[in-house]
Amino acid sequence: MINPTFTAVPAKRLAFTGFIGSILANTPLSPRVLRHGFNTTLSILSGEVMPQRPVLRATQGPDADDLPAGNSSSPAGKQPAPSARDKYRALCRHDTSIQLFARDWWLDATAGADGWDVAIVEKGGKIVAALPYQYRNKMGFRLVGQPALTPALGPWFASHDGGLPWSMSQQRDMLTALIADLPRFHYFAQNWHSRNTNWLPFYWKGFQQTTRYTYVLKDIRDPEKLRAQFQHQARTAINKATQKHHLQVRDDLPLEALFSLNHKTFDRQDKQIPYTNDYVRRLDAACLAHDCRKLLVAVDQEGNYHAAVYMVWDENSAYYLIGGGDPRLRTSGAASLCLWEAIRHASGVTQQFDFEGSMMEPVEQFFRLFGGEQVPYFHLRKTPSRLLRARESLLSVLGKS
Amino acid sequence: MAGRDHGQDKAAYRTLCETETSIPIFAKDWWLDATAGSDGWDVALARKDDRILGAMPYTRSRRVGMTVLGQPALTMALGPWMVPGEGKIGTRLAHEKKIMQQLIDALPRFDHFTQNWSSNLGNWLPFYWNGFSQTTKYTYVLPQLGPTDVMWSALETSTRASCKKAGERHKLTVRDDLPIDDFIALHRMTLARRGVTPQYSEDYIRRLDAACVKHQCRKLIMVVNDKGQHCAGNYIVWDNNSAYGLMNGVDPEMRNTGAATLGTWEVIKHAASVTQKFDFFGSMNETIEPYVRSFGAQQVPYFSISKTPSRLLRMRRGMQSVINPKYAAA
Questions:
Q1: For residue A47, what is the DSSP state?
Q2: B242-250 and B277-279 as β-strands: parallel, antiparallel, unpaired?
Q3: Judging by beta carbons within 10 Å of its beta carbon (0-12, 13-18, 19+), is residue A108 exposed, middle or buried?
Q4: DSSP assigned state of A330
Q5: What is d(CA A263, CA A324) in angstroms, rounded to the nearest whole number?
Q6: Closest chain A residue to B283 measured between Cα atoms?
Q7: B91/A231 CB distance under 8 A
Q8: B315 to chain A: which residues are within 8 Å by CB?
């Protein structure tokens, strides 16, 4: 059996998991996201009880009264100094080492233009380290994390003068400064990019970490060579899809094709979809504007949609972001065929193919068939709120964590 | 597991340890005998036909009615040992998964499990699927020991200066013929100064030392001054792959003489003559990093794996987490 679960791929790397996930799962993301503006320049928190930033300005939602009061208005007519976010936006325009998911326009499209901010470290007027994050207020809790359909964020370091890697102590100092530049929060949860391998400074500040995995094809210049490295089940499935079921992969279909397949997948797994169609539409529009997305749908001769892959890419890698399959047509090999076409397309536009892996056993089994290298990444978490910690503990005792 | 003869598995593992050089020193039967006691440990095996494809030794103890599986004190890592898989990358991962699942299935019922894994193990997914948790810790390693002059020039300037100062100004010399009890005294002094309660007794160290002497895989270096006072001591053990800085000791009054640095440099030199790497057996402690970095060590991650099926223990941990100020806002 080839792909019993070409399935909950989209559900896999959500920033807010566990009990927070359960809070959030009941609520579509975008409409209730509280907007907040930061118009003070970033300053390192000095341990005061309630910091002056970020200043939250609720536009809707019942939590507005819980928000800290602050100096939210800048003097009229005066040009405020550029915020950390403004500086980071400028950086994103020219530094291609910033991963797609950490770019300002991606965060605008997912978190909303006021739903994210960035901790930065500057040296000589240049940003040398940055940690973008989504910032939300939910039921009175301040949550720092990452938006849905954003597989990874985490610390980014500018390339060092002269191209040498930053030393251990430099990295440590920059990470410590980034932590100090985070706003106060009740709960923090982020998946980090796999290049981040040192979380010690976060450990010293009470964060917790665990290792998760994605699967990456690290050199996709020659897709035919890759295909030879697939497990035979994957090759058989692709052949079956084209030769027996005469499936065609189309790249000109509207998002609705993806939605219908994606929803079927979630339905079959009896899971809530952690994003709305509008959320995906907004993200898709941004990706179209930046010419870095492709929707591939496997269609049979009667016009039935069998499976779909939605991929995005940057200069370094393509990412398998959303998938879906019709449970009734699962044996047609369509999922494998779509992935194969996605890899082929990626080969023409970037250097790697990231399956954006999953910790779910069946998904892992499926990705493994394509010969990707298992690449670890960090999941970081911290729960300063005693109330939320009590809830975590309770759920753990009940075996629901 | 039911129906499995543990005595037979342990005997088979002892035989494997005699011939299999890729089993780390901490997982050898004689090491476990010396630390956990010959009845204090057991081993989970994964077999195919008659061949052992994987092994995971563990200590077993009972505390207040709870069965705890873990690893002995002064043991850096246990965790799965596996015959390397071959073929395509997907095949290798499938091979690992199969072995790890067999090892997990071969564990007895327990209330709490915790082990550190060797840094060469990078895949804990099968344990995740079985309800275990993981976090990443770090040790510090000199990944390639070599000729003394090359290693010497890789030291930070201040470290070289410390070594020179120890010899020239403080007239410190290095001895490797002093008894273990001399070292134990120094080691205890160091722990007491740091306010650390030792997790092992003096007899525990003596027993382990006797076993290591017998297997010719330890070196004890003492740094002494011209009055014969013991200033610092370093205790290392090794296997084919790496040496491990197991214990240190320094007389607080001699801390400014460079004795500790000299002792460490001496054991690194010795390690280079018997194995390939030097592992400082590091900790997550904030203060250790600058010291080990001065010897050119690299930060190397390893996994800590745990599982607590006991609801009572989970409740205890939960309450501790709620009151622990460590998790409060920075």
A1: S
A2: parallel
A3: middle
A4: G
A5: 7
A6: A200
A7: yes
A8: 393, 397
Q: Rounded to an integer, what distance in angstroms lies between the CA atom of residue A106 and that of residue A97?
A: 15
User: Tell me, what amino acid is at B197?
Assistant: T
How do residues B260-314 score in pLDDT, each as one tens digit?
999 999 999 999 999 999 999 877 788 788 889 899 999 999 999 999 999 999 9
Burial class (CB in 10 A: 0-12, 13-18, 19+), A6: buried
- The complex's ipTM works out to 0.91
DSSP state of B255: G
Encoded tokens for B288: 């250790």
Task: Please answer whether residues B204 and B35 qualify as being in contact, where contact means their C-beta atoms are separated by less than 8 angstroms.
Answer: yes
At residue B287, the pLDDT reads 79
The model's pLDDT over B250-270, given as tens digits with 9 standing for 90+, comes to 998 888 899 999 999 999 999
pLDDT exceeds cutoff 80 at B4: no
Dist CA A394 CA A398 (whole Å): 6
- The chain A residue lying nearest B306, using CA atoms, is A210
Q: How far apart are the first and last CA of chain A?
A: 31
| B268 close to B141: Cβ distance less than 8 angstroms | no
Mean pLDDT rounded to a whole number for chain B: 93
Q: How far is B90 from chain A (nearest CA, A)?
A: 5
Write down the pLDDT at residue A77: 56
Q: Of B129, B135, B289, which is closest to A208 when you measure between CB atoms?
A: B135
**Beta pairing class for A126-138 and A141-145:** antiparallel
Of B133, B326, B330, which is closest to A179 when you measure between CB atoms? B330
Which tokens in the block code for residue A340?
């194969």
Give the one of A209, A376, A390 whose C-beta lies nearest to B322's C-beta.
A390
Q: Judge contact between B257 and B226, C-beta under 8 A.
A: no
Q: Are B254 and B302 in contact (CB under 8 A)?
A: no
Q: Which of B90, B123, B321 shows the shortest C-beta gap to A389?
A: B321
Answer positive or negative: Cα dihedral of A35, A39, A43, A45. negative
- How many of the other CB atoms lie within 10 Å of CB of A71? 10
Tokens of A257: 């094709």
- Compute the C-alpha angle A26/A27/A29, nearest 5°: 140
The answer, yes or no, to whether residue A14 has pLDDT greater than 80, is: no
Contact B327 A369 (CB under 8 A): no
In chain B, % helix, strand, coil (3-state, to 5) comes to 40, 25, 30
Nearest to B266 by CA among B281, B248, B284: B248
Contact present, A371 and A230 (Cβ < 8 Å): yes
Instruction: For residue A192, give the DSSP letter.
Output: B
Q: Which of B272, B295, B277 is nearest to B146 (CA)?
A: B272
How confident is residue B56, by pLDDT bands cut at 50, 70 and 90?
Answer: very high
Nearest-by-Cβ selection for B125 from A208, A364, A386: A364
Could you tell me if A17 lies within 8 Å of chain B, comparing CB atoms? no
Q: State residue A269's pLDDT score.
A: 87
- Minimum CA–CA partner of A200 in chain B: B284
Rounded to 5 degrees, φ, ψ at A19 are -70, -35
What residues 178-217 of chain A have any CB closer than 8 A to a CB of chain B? Answer: 179-180, 184-185, 197-200, 203-206, 208-211, 213
Please give, rounded to a whole number of angstroms, the shortest distance from the CA of A282 to a CA of chain B.
34
Which of B95, B57, B63 is CA-nearest to residue B77? B57
**Mean pLDDT, all residues of chain A:** 82
